[in-house]
Amino acid sequence: MYRRSLAQLLLNWSVLMLGLITSGLGYLLLQLQLEQFSSGWERRITFELDNLARDVEYHLESDNRYRIESRITERLTDSSVRYLAVLTEAGDQVIFSTRSADLVQGLSYRLSSHSLNTGVREAQIERHQSEFYALFPLRLSLPDDPSVTRSSSPKGWLFAHYDAAQDYDEMLRALVRKIMLVAVLIVVFLVVQSQILRRYVLLPVKRLIHLTTSMMEGKYASISDSRSAKEIAKLEKAFNELSRHLDDTTHRIAHQQALTDAFTSGFPDIGLLVTGTGVINGRFGNPQSRISRLNEDLTGTPFTAWLNLSATETIEKARNQALNTRELVIAEFSHDDLFLESRMVPLEEGTGEENALIWLIRDISEIKRKQQLIEYQANYDPLTDLANRRMALQQLESKICQTQEDGGYSGVLFIDLDHFKNINDSLGHPIGDRLLIEAARRLTDCVRRKDIIARLGGDEFLIILDKAEDTEQQAENMAIALGEQILDAIRQPFSIDINKFHLTASIGIAIFPTSECGANDLIRQADTAMYWAKHQGRSQLCLYNHRMQEETRERLHLFNDLYQAIRDNGFTLVYQPQHNDSGEITGAEALCRWVNNGQSVYPDVFIAAAEETNLILPLGEWVLTHACRTLRQWIKDGSLPASFKRLAVNISPAQFMDPDFEQKLDATLALCDIDSSVLELELTESLFMGDKDLIREKMQRLSAKGFTFALDDFGTGYSSLSYLQKLPINKLKIDRAFVMDIQPGSERASIVDAIIQLGQNLNMDIIAEGVETDQQQDYLQQHGCRQYQGYFFSRPLRDDMFVRYINDNPQ
C-alpha cells in the first residue's frame, strides 16, 4: 500500500488550503464589489432618471414635445445610456423613445424579462451583469384635455437601459488584483508555515524516525535537544528514555544470558527436558557426570530407559504427581552404587510444550555418606569430641527419670574455666582451642567410664554422674570429691608448644532429683552455683542451695538500686591526694562512693554490677562531669598549690570504647572550662583485650589534644607488655596488692622493682598506690619510685575536706 510522506501531505494540504482560501476570499470580494458596483450605479440612475422624469412631466404639461425629445436625446450623449423611452401606464405603447422605430412598432424590450413590473407604481432598477434596466413612474398630463385634473391625469413610465460595461470591467480588474494580492499573502503565509513545520515538526520527526531505525538495528543512541515544540520535545525525551531503557535492558538480557550460559555449563547437576510423551528432548548441566548412562546421547529415548528397574516405578510416580499438581516433586532413588535425588519441575502452560517438565538429577551419595557424621555432630562437640548441650539435655532428662523411678540421688557438675576469655583474646583461638581439648582430656581422665561429659559452649563443661547414691548427702559427697579432683587436674600447668599456662576452674554442683527436676532447671541451678564459686574468688566449687537463689534476687535488687541511684544522682565523689618524695601534693584521684539504703556499698561491688548491666556508661559520665566541675571550682578559687599537676579520673573499658567518648569528653571540658592538660585518664589493662588498633588510634588523638594517660593496677592483668611501647601511656600505677606486702628480697618486692625499672626505661612516671607505712614509702623511694598515694598520707576526702587538707599541708 502506497503511503505518502508527512512532507507530501503537508504540501498537498497547503495547496488545497491556498485554493480554498483564495476561492473563498475571491468570492467574498466579488460579492462585495458587485454590491458596491450595483449600489453606486443605482444611486446614479435614480438621480438621473428622477430629474429626467420631472423634466418630462413639466414639459408634458406645457405640451412641449420637442423639448421632451430633446432632453431624451441629450441623454444619449452619455456612453453608458443605451436607451430611453416614455411608456404608457400598461407599458405596451411608447410615447417618446430614443429609437424612432419603437414609436410605431412598440417597445423592443420585454419588461418582464428584466424583472420589471408595470403593475407596481414605484421606481424599479434591475441589473443584469454590467447592464441596468430602470422603470420610473410618470404623470402624463395632456393640455388638450382640460377635463382631466392633476390628480386624475393618466400615468406612464420612464424606461431606461444603462450599459456600465466599462466600470464593470474596471471593477473586475481591481477585484483580480486584490485576489492576487490575497493569494500572494496566503502563499507567503503557507511558506512561512511550512518552514516552521519543517523546523519544529518535520526535522524532529525525521530524527525520531532515524532513532527508531537505529533502535530496530540494535543501535541505541539519543537525540540532542532540537529546541522544537513542547510536544515534540516531550516525544524526543520519551524516545531518549526508551532508547536508554532498551539499551539497559539489552545489556541486562545479555548479562543474564551470559550468567545463564555460565550457570548451565557449571551446573553440578544434570538436567533433562522431558516432553509430554515422556521422551527426553534435551540435556544440560554437568557434562561429565558420575552416572555414565547420562553422559550418553539420550535424545529421543524414554525418560526411564537409563534407570534400573527398581527405580522406574518411583520416578514414573513422581512424574505423574508433578504433572497433576503442577508443583515441584522431589524423590530419591538408587542407581548402581550411587544414591540420586530427582527433582521434577513442570513447565508453565503456554510455553508450547504441553505436559513437559524439567528433570534435575543430583548425585547425593556423598551427602548420604555424611549423614552419620551429621548425626554425630548434632550430638557431639566437634572440637573436644564430648557430648554437646543437646545430647547432655537428653541424657540428663533420662537420668532424672531413672533416679525418680529407682529412688536414688545423683548430681551434675557445671565447670567453667576462669579467665579463659583473656587467653583466647590475647593469644588467639587456635591456642584457646588446644587448651580446651587438653581440659576435656583431663576431665575425661577424672570421671568414670559411664559418666557423661559435655561441652555446653565456650569454656563451659557439664558432667552428669552415672552412679546413683541412696541418700542426698552421699550424692553430694560423691560430687564434691569429683569436683576437687577436677580442680586439682585443671590447676596443673598446660603446655602448649613452648608455652605454659596456669588455669583454674569454678565448679557448681546440683543434686537431683528435686522439686524442680527438669534438665534445664538442673543445669541452671548448677550454673548459679558455679557463678557463686566465681564470686567467692574462683578456683573452687560450690554446692547449690536455695540461699544462692535468694542472693541472686538480692543481686537483682542491687542492680535496680544502682539504676535508681544513677537516675537520682545518688553517688558522691571523694579525692585521695597524691604526693611526691618531697611531700608536695602533685595531684589527686577522684573516687566514686555509694551509700545505698544507709549502707556503704564497696566500690568493687557496684562498679562490677554497673559493668555487668552496662550502667557503667552513665555512671562514668557522671563521675567525669562532677570531677571536672570540682576541679574547675578549685582552680577558680585558687585552692590548688603550684605543685598540683593533674586530677586523675578512672575511665572504664566500656566508657573508653564508647564511639561518642571523645565528643562527650570534649563537651565536658568545654562546659567546665578547664584545659585537657589538668586531667589524667586512668585506664586498666583489661581495656587492651579489645581492638588494639582502635584503642591506639583513640589514645593518640586524645594525647594530641593534651590528655595524659595512667595505667592503673599495672601487673595484675594478662595483656602483653608490648602495648607499653605502642601506646601514649604517661604513668604506671603499681597496684596496692604489690605494695602492701613489700619485704626486701620477697617475690612482690621483685615485681615492684621490675615495674619501676620498666617504667624508667620507657620514660614513664611511676606512682604507687596503697602506701600505708613509712617503710613502704622508704622502700619505694630507694628503688626509684617518686610518687605515692595511700592512707599513709590521707584517706579519700570530700572536696571541701580536700581543700582543708591542702591548707593544712602548706607546700
Quick gist of this model?
Strand 23 (708-714), helix 20 (723-726) and strand 24 (731-734) form a beta-alpha-beta unit. It is elongated, with a radius of gyration of 62 Å. With 811 residues, it is of the alpha+beta class.
Overview features:
alpha+beta; 8-stranded mixed β-barrel; single chain; elongated; 24 helices; 811 residues
Please characterize this protein's 3D structure.
With 811 residues, this protein is α+β, with helices and mostly antiparallel strands. Helix content is 49%, strand content 20%. The strands form 5 sheets. Strands 18-19-21-22-23-24-25-26 form an 8-stranded mixed barrel, surrounded by 6 helices. A 5-stranded antiparallel beta sheet has the order 2-1-5-4-3. A 5-stranded antiparallel beta sheet has the order 7-6-10-9-8. Strand 16, helix 13 and strand 17 form a beta-alpha-beta unit. Helix 1 packs antiparallel against helix 2 and helix 10 packs antiparallel against helix 11. The longest helix is centred in the N-terminal third of the chain and has 56 residues. It is elongated, with a radius of gyration of 62 Å. The mean pLDDT is 85.
